[in-house]
Automatic annotation (TrEMBL):
One of its GO terms (molecular function) is hydrolase activity, acting on carbon-nitrogen (but not peptide) bonds. This is Polysaccharide deacetylase family protein. GO terms for biological process: carbohydrate metabolic process. It comes from Paenibacillus foliorum. Residues 60-277 form the NodB homology domain. It comes from the Bacteria. Residues 1-23 are annotated as: Disordered.
Length: 303
C-alpha cells in the first residue's frame, strides 16, 4: 500500500564472527576426485518372499516366478553390462541363493566382482533374536564359501534394518564393514565398523517394484528414474559424497530398465571427477584415511 513503511527492527545485525559456523564435513577422495561412485546389486531373488511366507504355505506363484527372473536371466544381463563398461561391483547375496543358484554366484566371482553377505534367507534382523541373527550370518557365509571358497566378506542387512546386536556380531565374526545405514552420504564409523551408507532414493525397488494384485503404484518410466538418479549424482558430486546405486536383478534386469541403467553408468564411468570403487574398497579407504573421524554410536549419540 502506498505511503506505508515497513517497521525496521532495532535488533543489531549479528557480526560475522558471532554467527554460528556450519560444520565442515568435507570428505576427501583419492587422487583429488570429487566423489566416489559404486554400483551394488542385492541379489536376493525369491528369498524375501520365502522369508515373509515362512509361517504359511502360499499356493500362488506370481511373485515367486517374477522374482525367479532375476537369477534365471536378469543377473546375466547385469553381468554382461558390467563387463562392457569395465565396472567392478558389489553383490550382496543370501545364502539360500548360493545354494539354489550356484552357477550364477560362480559367474559373479569369475568376473572379479565383490561378494558380500546378505543373510541366509533374507531375514530381517529386527525380527530375530541375537542367536538367530548370528545363525543367519554363519549359515549365509558358509553357503557362499561352499561355492566361491573362503574369503572376507562385508555385510548388508536384508531390508536395510540393523540392531545393536547385529553390529556386535559382525565384529565378533570379523566382518570388515556394514552397508545398511544412511547417517551420512559418505562413509563413517558406527559401533566400531566402517559404514558404507545406502539411501532409498538410489534403490531401484522404490521406483519399479510391483508384484501385481492392484496394490501400489505402477512402475515408473525408466527415463524418469534415470533422471532422478542423475540429479542425485550431481548433488552428491557437489558435496563430495558417495553415489552408491543399488539394484535388484529381478527388477532392473528387465529390457528397458537395463538399457537406461547402462546409459547412466556409462556417463558416470567417463566422468574424470569420479573414483569408481567397490563397497569393500570404499570401506578399506575409510578405515585407513579416517580412522579417527566421522565416528557415531547407535542412535546418533556422538562418542
Amino acid at each position: 500500500m502506498a505511503g506505508v513503511r515497513l517497521a525496521r527492527s532495532n535488533r543489531p545485525s549479528p557480526k560475522p564472527e558471532s554467527r554460528p559456523k556450519m560444520m565442515n564435513a568435507t570428505y576427501a577422495w583419492p587422487d583429488g576426485k570429487r566423489c566416489v561412485a559404486a554400483f551394488s546389486i542385492d541379489f536376493d531373488g525369491e528369498t524375501p518372499y520365502l522369508w515373509r511366507s515362512r509361517h504359511t504355505q502360499p499356493n500362488t506363484l506370481g511373485e515367486l516366478e517374477q522374482r525367479a527372473f532375476g537369477p534365471r536371466q536378469g543377473i546375466y544381463r547385469i553381468l554382461e553390462m558390467l563387463s562392457r563398461l569395465d565396472i567392478r561391483s558389489s553383490f550382496f547375496i543370501p545364502g539360500v541363493i548360493a545354494e539354489k543358484y550356484p552357477a550364477a554366484v560362480e559367474a559373479i566371482a569369475k568376473e572379479g566382482h565383490e561378494i558380500g553377505l546378505h543373510g541366509y534367507l533374507h531375514e530381517r534382523v529386527d525380527e530375530l533374536s541375537k542367536e538367530q541373527v548370528e545363525e543367519s550370518i554363519i549359515r549365509g557365509k558358509q553357503a557362499l564359501e561352499k561355492v566361491i571358497g573362503p574369503r572376507t566378506m562385508g555385510f548388508r542387512s536384508p531390508s536395510w534394518e540393523m540392531t545393536a546386536d547385529t553390529f556386535e556380531l559382525l565384529q565378533r565374526h570379523g566382518i570388515p564393514y556394514d552397508s545398511s545405514m544412511m547417517g551420512y552420504d559418505h562413509p563413517y564409523w558406527i559401533e566400531g565398523l566402517p559404514e558404507v551408507p545406502v539411501q532409498w532414493l538410489l534403490d531401484d525397488a522404490i521406483f519399479y517394484r510391483y508384484t501385481g494384485g492392484g496394490a501400489g503404484n505402477p512402475p515408473l518410466n525408466p527415463n524418469t528414474v534415470i533422471d532422478t538418479w542423475q540429479q542425485e549424482f550431481e548433488g552428491i558430486k557437489r558435496y563430495g559424497g558417495l553415489f552408491l546405486l543399488t539394484v535388484h536383478c529381478w527388477i532392473s534386469g528387465r529390457g528397458s530398465r537395463i538399457i537406461a541403467l547402462e546409459r547412466l553408468l556409462s556417463q558416470l564411468k567417463n566422468d574424470p571427477d569420479v573414483w569408481w570403487a567397490t563397497c569393500g574398497e570404499v570401506a578399506e579407504y575409510h578405515a585407513k584415511q579416517y580412522a579417527g573421524q566421522f565416528r557415531e554410536t547407535l542412535g546418533g549419540r556422538t562418542p
